[in-house]
Structures are given as structure tokens and as C-alpha cells.
Design goal:
mainly alpha, 4 helices
Length: 78
């Protein structure tokens, strides 16, 4: 999918990012201090965001595994 308006997508994303997986100022500073090239900063920011997304997906999967099924609830009642 080609993104036609990058900044519009970024603004919309602000409404959907879980605060537990958002980037914090210290992470931005770490990325800035580790790079001198603006493109490298963007790439590292993307990589950081990607890894945060994986962390969120794993947490969601683990939460889903911990929720007992209806049958498990019924067996607990016995």
C-alpha cells in the first residue's frame, strides 16, 4: 500500500497508539545521540517502533492465552 499523505497518517496514528508502547523522550534522545545522519535516525526510529509493535503483539497473544475458554470456566465451577 502506498501512503499518499505521510503526516496525515502520523496524525491519525496518534489516536491509536497504546501509551504503553509509545516512544518516550529518552528513546528519542538515545536515537538522536547514536546517529549524525537524519536518515539513520528515521530508520532507527522505525526499527524501535517495529520492535515495540512486536512486544505489543506478544503481550496481546499472551493475554489471549490466559483467558480461559467457556469450557474451562465450566470445569472450574464443578
Amino acid at each position: 500500500m502506498r501512503v499518499k499523505n505521510t503526516m496525515q497518517l502520523v496524525r491519525v496514528a496518534n489516536n491509536y497508539i497504546n501509551i504503553y508502547y509509545d516512544i518516550e523522550a529518552e528513546h528519542v534522545i538515545d536515537i538522536k545521540n547514536a546517529n549524525t545522519d537524519p536518515c539513520a535516525m528515521i530508520i532507527d526510529g522505525f526499527k524501535f517502533g517495529y520492535m515495540q509493535g512486536l512486544k505489543a503483539a506478544r503481550a496481546e497473544q499472551n493475554a489471549a492465552k490466559k483467558i480461559p475458554s467457556v469450557r474451562e470456566y465450566q470445569s472450574l465451577e464443578r
